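Final report, Chapter 2: Outcomes

The project's central promise was a pipeline that accepts a single protein chain and returns its three-dimensional structure in a standardized token representation, suitable for archiving and comparison. That pipeline is now operational. To close this chapter, we reproduce one record exactly as it appears in the project archive, with the input sequence first and the structure output second.
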Amino acid sequence: MHKFKRSKPRITLLESDQPPTPTPIDAKVAHNNGTSVAIEATNESLQASKTVPTPSLSEIIEQRTRENGRLRHELAYQQRKQAIDLSTLEKVGRVVAELRHTLREHKKLEAVIDHDFGKIGTGEEVEWFPRSLILS
């Protein structure tokens, strides 16, 4: 039997070891107090991050508490939106079912009319509005 040699996985290097340069979109993000990899990799941002003091434990707890409250508020918002979306979806489903029923009835009546139209001139009696379809 022949033994197959497994090849070592190749590591492909990126074209550059440098961080990406900021694009116009990054500038807009930065203008709106946002961040991106390119923004965080600028010399100004890197130097500023070195001088930022480490918050105390009580400050971290306060920040996390505020963030937790904001996330709870956002969750409540999304849950309320989901509830009305589901309600609307149920209503639309009922309307679609009613439309399908109406179209089936329309096709039945149309078929009866087409059938009866074929009877005209043959001497057979024609019902203009069949009771069986009208009462259903």
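Archive annotation: The chain has a mean pLDDT of 83.
This record, like all others produced under the grant, will remain available to the consortium after the project formally closes.
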